[in-house]
Amino acid sequence: MPLPPVVYLDNHATTRVDPRVVEAMLPYFTEEFGNSGSASHSFGKTACDAVGQSRDAVAAHISALPREIIFTSGATESNNLAIRGVVERQQRQEKKSRAHLVSVRTEHHSVLGPLQRLAERGCRLTLLDVEPASSDRAGWLDPEQVANALCDETVLVSVMLANNEIGVVQPLSEIAEICHDRGVILHCDATQAVGKLPVDVSVLGVDLMSFSGHKLYGPKGVGALYVRSRDPIVRLEPQIIGGGQQRGRRSGTLNTPGIVGLATALELCVQEMSDESIRLAALRNRLWTGLKERLGEVALCGPALDTKDAHSDLLRLPGNLNVALGDVDGEALLLAMENLAVSSGATCASNDPGPSHVLLALGMDADLARSSLRFGLGRFNTESDIDVAIESVTAGVKQLRQFGSKLGG
Ligand SMILES: Cc1ncc(COP(=O)(O)O)c(C=O)c1O
């Protein structure tokens, strides 16, 4: 008997490339394959034009200038370039090795990792706490916390816009005001927000912002870093040195098909965003209601689905749901649900065997964190996917509970 199709609800991990994006990319693999740096012939010029047009489009969608966009291999590289680039530049120019850095416990490992590396090399690192699991704003960072953490030595604050596990949206524009009053540079990892929420660097007030193609129905292996060029100019120490591409800030032959894919994917997200957010929020709410009805004891991890911020915007990504099931192990549940692709708070990263650091930062105990499931709903999901997911989780939980009660007695 053929296996039932697997329903994919792990869109925070990655997204399927939209066929319209693939179509836009295809000519740049086979026909227009030139190196955008080869100025001496038409192949190079065509690639250079495609990169230029994509840079203009990406910049316009976030209200930046084309020269403020550096193309990278993804958000991990963008985060490393932003954080290490700013700090190493300041250390070299001002000989400040004891620079103070501020970030948040719930950041992605590609932010925490470079920060920790800098801390091992003499910087002082403050990681801020977020609102606890019991709050309607669980996971939210109070801007007052940032204000209280800053000191004369602070050179960089890094706060993500939307969290990849619990979907909480942070108050970046308030945080930017605090940082700018004190002359501190603000980096934002907007990987889960770009393409899903309106993102305008002038409204957010950030100085550096990272994002990635594969989270927004574009290809893997391409991303971007926005770097402010006025009021103030942000200068970076390059992390990849070579042929001097991208004005020396990130050497390496540009990934023309990937860059065209990123620009096309972002364009589609922006065009479809308002209807898509409403559709995803409705699907997510159907999933939450269905799970509660069928299972009874499920706890929501992260902010309440209807909590709003000071600008009347919802505090949670529309396609995100994270639930703790209490008495079952998330990893065991994943194995029991063969027709559902989701992820669990038991392993927040494949190389990190512990429970999710994000859920622990909310004050959840390790067992509860291990019992959680993260759902990321996306463009290709339908109501019937949600109904399959409700059935599948319910059956999986019942099976594990029965097994557990047999073992228990
Ligand atoms: C919030 C966040 N930042 C950074 C990354 C890393 O992105 P990439 O896979 O493009 O390196 C991810 C991917 O999981 C993410 O969710």
Task: Describe the model.
This protein has helices at residues 19-25, 27-30, 42-61, 75-94, 109-120, 143-149, 172-181, 201-204, 256-295, 330-336, 357-361, 366-370, 383-408; strands at 7-8, 69-72, 100-104, 124-128, 154-158, 185-189, 208-212, 223-227, 299-300, 320-324, 340-341, 343-344, 372-376. The protein is an alpha/beta fold. It folds into 2 domains: 7-15 and 273-408, Alpha-Beta Complex (Aspartate Aminotransferase, domain 1), CATH 3.90.1150; 19-265, 3-Layer(aba) Sandwich (Aspartate Aminotransferase, domain 2), CATH 3.40.640.10. Helix 7 links the parallel strand 5 (154-158) and strand 6. Helix 6 packs parallel to helix 7, helix 9 (256-295) crosses helix 13 (383-408) and helix 10 (330-336) packs across helix 13 (383-408). The longest helix is centred in the last third of the chain and has 40 residues, at 256-295. The structure holds pyridoxal-5'-phosphate. Pyridoxal-5'-phosphate (PLP) is lined by residues 74-76, 108, 110, 160, 164, 189, 191-192, 212, 223.
Please give a handful of descriptors for the protein shown:
binds pyridoxal-5'-phosphate; 4-stranded antiparallel β-sheet; 409 residues; alpha/beta
Radius of gyration, CA atoms, in whole angstroms = 22 Å
What value does the average pLDDT take? 94
Q: For the record, what is the CATH homologous superfamily label of the largest domain?
A: Type I PLP-dependent aspartate aminotransferase-like (Major domain)
The total beta strand count reads 13
Computed structural class: alpha/beta
Order of helices and strands: EHHHEHEHEHEHEHEEHEEHEEHHEH
Percent helix? 40-55%
